[in-house]
Amino acid sequence: MTKVRHVIGISGGKDSSALAIYLNDKYPGLSLEYYFCDTGKELKETYELISNLETRLGIQVQKLNSAQNSHINPFDHFLEIYGGFLPSSNARWCTKKLKLEPFEKFVADDPVISYVGIRGDEDREGYISKKSNIQSIFPFRKNIWSEDVIQKILANNKIEIIAQFYKDLNLEDKSERILEVIHIPLSPNYLQSEKLNVLLDLGIKEFNKVTFRFIKEFTDYPLSKVDKFPLVDNEDIKIREDIFTLLRDSGVGVPKYYDQKEFQVNAKKGSYARSRSGCFFCFFQQKIEWVWLYEQHPEMFTKAMEYEKEGYSWMDNERLEELIQPERIEQIKEDYLIKQSKNKGKSAYLVDIIEDAEGEGCAACFI
Predict the structure, then answer these.
(1) DSSP class of 98
(2) Which of 61, 148, 336, 361 is positioned for an S-S bond with 34, CB 3.0–4.6 A?
């Protein structure tokens, strides 16, 4: 069989780090390769986390540099090429140049399984490569397969094939209900997501076995080139709380920028933290995170502010020099406290999920 590479990108965040630990411990036979796309503008806590992972797992995380022959760091190299034009949510050249291109150069044309740390309590697909030699797998989710795989296996013209695959599993008591579901065609009244969830509820392992067989017999995905895939038997679903527990129990620890820092404004107390890994000046940051950066890492905030001297800004509606005016900081903190107050009636778990979703940023930065 063709040699298939198994890779995992370390972003410096909690989910990809936890996934690296989880896969290393539970599936040591995967021969995983670990990589990190270094923008040159990461928080120091990111590099500390990667060092902790290397020590704990006894591995080497390959640092990918998209401007290897340049005399300056990758971000500044491409910023110069783009004439000082800062990246934004509408022009994410940073994602393309600093994340995707070095990753795709790293894997080249080899068949690759890319493991992605999207959790079971998240409602997003994540980055899916357009290159046919790269296949994404999501071990923390109930459904480990990517959207493109699901579209193929649940297509109406594949109903009889999938039904036969299930019959070959000899499921006995489950068989009748599963076959009933399989034979319901997708329609505006019966969506793919609904059918998928019912099948997964009837048996995650069974669905994975059928999907793996379908991939091998009817597709050219990288997994079609392997004899066995251990994650077919995986039924673990990891949520946010599990991630923090895994990091703490492993000894690697939770990235320090997740630690809540207390603040006070107009005699009221609150706390804030950073919700993401990635560049310290990420334009997807919430306003309160910019304030966090200003107060916790003033030297980095100053560097971020210097980039705005070329006439471009990180945010469409506000420059950093305006954001750090005392009255503006006070307003941002007040607004944040109001938001936290509104969330008081919700469970702490739900609030965590909401804050995670708001801090996701560009999914491609977390491959």
Answers:
(1) I
(2) 61
Asked if 113 and 5 touch (Cβ cutoff 8 Å), the reply is yes
**Residue 87 DSSP code:** -
Report the first-to-last Cα separation within the chain, whole angstroms. 27
Under the phi-then-psi rule, with left for phi > 0, alpha for psi from -120 to 50, and beta for the rest, what region is 266?
left
Provide the token pair at 256: 């320090």
Query: 28-64 pLDDT, tens per residue?
Result: 999 999 999 999 999 999 999 999 999 999 999 999 9
Q: β-pairing, 261-265 with 268-272?
A: antiparallel
Sequence-separated (6 or more) residues with CB below 8 Å from residue 99:
37, 39, 364, 365, 367
Pairing label, strands 112-115, 5-9: parallel
62 and 33 Cβ atoms separated by less than 8 Å = yes
Pair of tokens at residue 284 = 């997807």
Q: Which domains does the chain have, with CATH numbers?
A: 5-145+230-250 (3.40.50.620), 146-229 (no CATH), 256-366 (no CATH)
Whole-number Å distance between alpha carbons of 11 and 265: 33
329 is written with which tokens?
Answer: 């900081």
Do residues 40 and 76 make contact, with C-beta atoms less than 8 angstroms apart? yes
Q: Supply the pTM of this predicted model.
A: 0.90
SS3 224: helix
